[in-house]
DNA sequence: GCACCTGGTTTAATATTGCAACCACACAAA
DNA sequence: TTTGTGTGGTTGCAATATTAAACCAGGTGC
């Protein structure tokens, strides 16, 4: 493989996100963490993934500042993994993934849960993208602009 | 490896999305397609990925109804790959990924482009999640509810 | 007819994943 | 204090996926 291509230094922010959290397990680990899971064993039980790869993923997420380790909260001498603000910031991505499934999945009847507003218990609205002056935007209403002060001769991609 | 674990029949909609488009290249292919790229060679040139894996990914995306093939538009006898509505529905996911990078990346100065509203040329707002009665929701304001008519004894995950 | 472009497939090397077995430490009971 | 059990890993090995590079077939251009 030579090396799985890394997008760490790509100039596309989508590629950069994918490089950080764009693999199946990382995203699911963060999903569980958002629901309060914090212990190694609990991640392993709920996700059913191999312990070695869980260990690698947790370390990578900690290195990237998405999770942080803390010295236990239930009194035991073990540690727990907690989300940082950066980690909690993944929430909209997970919501977008969920809503895409809900809208386009071939077998929506297999989907077991729906995301609701905690206060009223009613399903949430679809994520919406607005312009600064409040117009609802679709993909076609947007464009990419090079950032100011971008180094020349770097290819602007997306 | 025995087999890379598939989430195709997982009951979590996030896992199901990831199973469909949760790998680096698929997401980036869709990103390019949203910008109008439609030809094999152009995907290959812009993404710089090996042609064999591009072929595999394109086939998978077509099988899943995210892309469809059409018999050329520039007159040549070749075919092109176009997004279906399901494919265009990925847009919010890409926006969410982009915004996460913009907000939390360690080296934001390396990000080359910003997403703007085409009409005014101004940066778009952050994606926002609302309740049905219009309140802005964060991760903590939401909960998961089992779908009605869900088969019993299936574990509700997320 | 001949070169070359497009859109792939094949091959072989290397990386990643996954399972299972092992291990070290904490804690608890006997 | 030995024995047992749960937690949180690490190690080894086999299977699979990714990759670059070489190859190839049909269309197109000249």
Automatic annotation (TrEMBL), chains A, B:
<dbReference type="Pfam" id="PF01638">
    <property type="entry name" value="HxlR"/>
</dbReference>
<dbReference type="InterPro" id="IPR036390">
    <property type="entry name" value="WH_DNA-bd_sf"/>
</dbReference>
<keyword id="KW-0238">DNA-binding</keyword>
<keyword id="KW-0805">Transcription regulation</keyword>
<dbReference type="InterPro" id="IPR036388">
    <property type="entry name" value="WH-like_DNA-bd_sf"/>
</dbReference>
<feature type="domain" description="HTH hxlR-type">
    <location>
        <begin position="12"/>
        <end position="109"/>
    </location>
</feature>
<dbReference type="GO" id="GO:0003677">
    <property type="term" value="F:DNA binding"/>
</dbReference>
<protein>
    <submittedName>
        <fullName>Helix-turn-helix transcriptional regulator</fullName>
    </submittedName>
</protein>
<dbReference type="InterPro" id="IPR002577">
    <property type="entry name" value="HTH_HxlR"/>
</dbReference>
<keyword id="KW-0804">Transcription</keyword>
